[in-house]
Amino acid sequence: MNAKAYPPSPYSSPLGKANPESHTLSVLVDNEPGVLARVVGLFSARSFNIESLTVAEVAHENHLSRITIVTSGTPEVVEQVRHQLERLIPVHNVTDLTLSVRAIERELAMVKVRGRGDNRVEALQLAEAFRAKVIDATTESFIFEITGAPRKIDDFVGLMLPIGLVEVSRTGVAAISRGPDPI
To answer: Which residues of 20-34 are buried (b: 16+ CB within 10 A; e: fewer)?
Structure first.
């Protein structure tokens, strides 16, 4: 019996685990109950990690929401996920913004830092260099608001660690394509 040879599955083969890349997917969906659970369930059922997830209504009159998902995988795996998302009923469009040179990603974070004396001065100087705003201050701590690319926020948080980082709250990535055309 000649069994038909199939290419290895990207889920179980070394191909699916080698050289993972971060990808930002923009998913336009109907704004109705259960849609987010179905989209997240697709990732969960296939053991894909979601690194960042944001959801907001973007067209009130049409009842549409945009789900922005940051995930990691090989290009083959991410492409397969994109095709599976496109097959879900409430999904209108799926775009891998990572493949678009013209995409912009931003994130907002609030960063609480404890400090006195020199640490306080250093925290304020770093915040100024990163264009972070002080949104709350006490005699012993600051809360900074910082907006930018995720890497910028990672760098800011990393520099605040030795100064007295207390906690961080991040919104997750919001992304959009540049130019006049919609995603």
So the answer is: eeebbbbbbbebeee
